[in-house]
Structures are given as structure tokens and as C-alpha cells.
């Protein structure tokens, strides 16, 4: 009887915890006597002749749980892109599906575990519907994937924001400045909200609660009048004004990317209040570095659960974290819509209760 073989790939943006998932998948598979093939650079690894793969083994997975990034590499571009700018969906071409299908047949894969966010899960769902034995593992620092209470990578991103705010408090106070900290969050403000609260921000701006510039200026002035000579403003890159305006810039590829809201706010605050204001864009710092304890545990647990789903042949499902348990849900439930911050959620009300302004 031949040894069972499964495939795994990491797709989309990188984040801390990916290697913990790979470690969990390898260790759980080893206990079953299975072989694990990792596709390099996400779904694109399926298109090389014979597949661009590496065998996961004891040597190359030892000690990776605490490392950031992914030993398999990843990409959010290429032939399998299922979501384009603005969230519009794009179908994978028949030629690409045929090539990938041949690769998986030739490799004799019993299951394919795809680790990624909303776009990667959309791709997994499309492949499942045409016959691929897909299992999803949710990954995004934005924590905006439906059908799971938390995704790994989020806690590490929040820790990065919190650390940055801890550092900026002292320099802001020393110079009596306002400092705007721009964080990731295209459509959902979870990073800004959690990081802002944990780091003691005075103003938190998220896409779900449109802001008014005059309200932000008033918040800064109130703090000055109360004797607080510095103000920290955390803003998600996708935050919008009460007119619905988001701030974008065009990339060299022709697509638009969110960016510039932090700089705009710094200029407006200084012009409206006369207070010296600086801006700090954290950018990809939020994706890098070692995973937190929580993300290591989540990642390992998600990897083990994915192997269990493969053993049960529960294809078309995604690992899901609910009520402190790792369960599973249909992938279709996860890509139905983005999980956004409810403007009246308890955490938002908690922040308001301690004097945090949301600019509304």
C-alpha cells in the first residue's frame, strides 16, 4: 500500500504564524505516516512542470514555529488571483485549472491545504468546485475573514502596533506633538482598534466609522486644554471621511492602493490646531517578525486540524476558531463577506468610555 501524500501552500500576504501551521501539518501527518509536499510561492507552484515543490520533513520544519514568514514562499499575484482591486472577483482560466489539475494528479495528492486570506480562500473555493480536494486555513493580519473568530497573524500585528505606540508616547510627550500612526486595514479596522486601545491611543480612526476632520482637531485641542500636551492618533489605511472619501495612490502595475490618509491627517491637524504634527506609517513592519505566543498556538492548532479534515475527507471546508475551539466551516461561508468592526460593538464602546475619539 502506497504512502498517502498531501499538498500544502501558503498564499497571499505573509504574516507571523505561517511556519507554525506548516509545522503542525508536518507533525500531524508524520503521526499518520503521510508525506507532505509544499508548493513553493503559493498556488503558482502548481503550474511548474511536475510542480515546484519541496518535501516537508523533520529537518526543514524543526524550529520554524517561532520564525516569521514562510519557508515555502508566497505571492498575491499571478495566474490564480481570484480577487482584484476593490474586491471584485476574477475567475481562474480553464488553461490554468487544467495545468494545476494535471500537476496534482501526477503528484497523487489526496488533499491540498491552502493557507491564506479572503482572496486565497476564494481561489480554494473555485478549485474545490471543479474537483480539487481543497481544505482552507484562514490567515490574515486584518482579522477580516468571516466564519472564524480570529485568524493567526492578527495578534502579532496588534503587538507591533502596540509596541510602536509605546515608543511614540515618549517622543510625542517630549516635543508636545501630535503623532499620526497609520496602520494596515483596507476594509476593516480591527488592527487599528485593538492596537489603538492596547497602546493608549487618544484617537482611533477605522473604515467602519467615517470621521470628520473638525472632530479630530477638537479632540486634539481638548487634550491640550486639559493639560495633555501630546496626542496619538491611530488610523487604518482604509479609514474614510464622512463624505466617503478614501485616500489612494496608483501603483506601477496600474492598480490603486490605499495610502496617504496619515499624511493628510497630519497636515490637517497642524493647519487646524497649530500643533506640530508628525506621521509614522508602520506598513510591512506589521507583517514581519516572530509570531506571538497566541499566533504560534493558533497556527499549530490550525495545521493539526487541517490534517484531521484531510483524514476525514471533509473537502471544501476551512478551519475555524470559535469559542476557544478549533472547528471547521464550509469555505463558502468564509468568503461570503468581510468581517468588519460593528460601530456599536462593546470594544468600540469601551474605547469611547475612556475618552477615545473616533472622529465622528
Our count of helices gives: 11
| CATH topology-level fold name of the largest domain | Rossmann fold
Strand order of the largest sheet: 3-2-1-4-5-12-13
Q: What do the pLDDT scores average to? A: 92
Task: Break the fold down into its secondary structure elements and pairings.
Elements: E1 5-10, H1 18-32, E2 35-39, E3 53-56, H2 58-61, H3 94-106, E4 111-116, H4 118-129, E5 134-138, H5 154-175, E6 178-183, H6 190-198, E7 203-205, H7 213-225, E8 231-236, E9 248-250, E10 256-258, H8 261-273, E11 277-281, H9 293-311, E12 317-322, E13 325-330, H10 331-334, H11 346-353
Parallel strand pairs: 1-2, 1-4, 4-5, 5-12, 6-8, 6-11, 7-8
Antiparallel strand pairs: 2-3, 9-10, 12-13
Tag the structure with descriptive keywords.
seven-stranded mixed sheet; 360 residues; 11 helices; Rossmann fold; elongated; single chain; alpha/beta; four-stranded parallel sheet
Question: Gist?
Answer:
The chain is of the alpha/beta class and about 350 residues long. The chain is built from eleven helices and 13 strands.
Question: What does this protein look like?
Answer:
Helix content is 37%, strand content 18%. The protein is α/β, with parallel strands linked by helices and 360 residues long. The protein folds into two domains: 5-153 and 291-334, Rossmann fold (3-Layer(aba) Sandwich); 157-288, Rossmann fold, CATH 3.40.50. Helix 1 packs parallel to helix 9 (293-311). The longest helix is centred in the middle third of the chain and has 22 residues, at 154-175.
Amino acid at each position: 500500500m502506497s504512502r498517502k501524500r498531501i499538498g500544502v501552500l501558503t498564499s497571499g500576504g505573509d504574516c507571523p504564524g505561517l511556519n507554525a501551521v506548516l509545522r503542525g501539518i508536518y507533525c500531524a501527518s508524520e503521526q499518520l505516516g503521510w508525506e507532505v509536499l509544499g508548493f513553493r510561492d503559493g498556488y503558482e507552484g502548481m503550474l511548474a512542470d511536475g510542480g515546484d515543490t519541496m518535501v516537508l520533513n523533520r529537518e526543514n520544519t524543526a524550529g520554524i514555529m517561532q520564525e516569521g514568514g514562510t519557508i515555502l514562499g508566497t505571492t498575491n499575484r499571478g495566474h490564480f488571483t481570484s480577487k482584484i482591486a476593490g474586491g471584485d472577483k476574477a475567475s481562474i482560466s480553464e488553461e490554468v485549472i487544467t495545468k494545476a489539475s494535471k500537476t496534482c494528479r501526477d503528484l497523487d495528492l489526496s488533499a491540498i491545504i491552502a493557507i491564506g486570506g479572503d482572496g486565497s480562500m476564494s481561489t480554494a473555493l473555485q478549485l474545490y468546485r471543479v474537483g480539487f480536494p481543497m481544505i482552507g486555513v484562514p490567515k490574515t493580519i486584518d482579522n477580516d475573514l468571516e466564519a472564524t473568530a480570529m485568524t493567526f497573524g492578527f495578534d502579532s500585528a496588534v503587538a507591533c502596533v502596540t509596541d510602536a505606540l509605546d515608543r511614540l508616547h515618549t517622543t510625542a510627550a517630549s516635543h508636545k506633538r501630535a503623532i499620526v500612526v497609520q496602520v494596515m486595514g483596507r476594509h476593516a479596522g480591527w488592527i487599528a482598534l485593538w492596537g489603538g486601545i492596547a497602546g493608549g491611543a487618544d484617537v482611533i480612526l477605522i473604515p467602519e466609522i467615517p470621521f470628520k476632520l473638525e472632530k479630530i482637531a477638537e479632540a486634539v485641542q481638548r487634550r491640550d486644554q486639559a493639560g495633555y500636551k501630546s496626542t496619538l492618533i491611530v488610523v487604518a489605511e482604509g479609514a474614510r471621511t464622512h463624505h466617503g472619501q478614501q485616500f489612494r495612490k496608483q501603483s506601477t502595475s496600474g492598480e490603486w492602493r490605499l495610502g496617504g490618509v496619515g499624511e493628510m491627517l497630519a497636515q490637517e491637524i497642524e493647519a487646524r490646531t497649530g500643533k506640530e504634527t508628525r506621521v509614522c506609517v508602520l506598513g510591512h513592519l506589521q507583517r514581519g517578525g516572530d509570531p506571538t505566543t497566541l499566533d504560534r498556538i493558533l497556527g499549530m492548532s490550525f495545521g493539526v486540524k487541517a490534517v484531521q479534515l484531510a483524514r476525514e475527507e471533509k473537502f471544501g471546508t476551512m478551519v475555524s476558531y470559535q469559542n476557544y475551539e478549533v472547528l471547521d466551516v464550509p469555505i463558502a461561508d468564509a468568503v461570503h463577506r468581510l468581517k468588519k468592526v460593528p460601530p456599536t460593538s462593546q470594544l468600540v464602546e469601551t474605547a469611547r468610555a475612556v475618552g477615545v475619539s473616533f472622529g465622528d
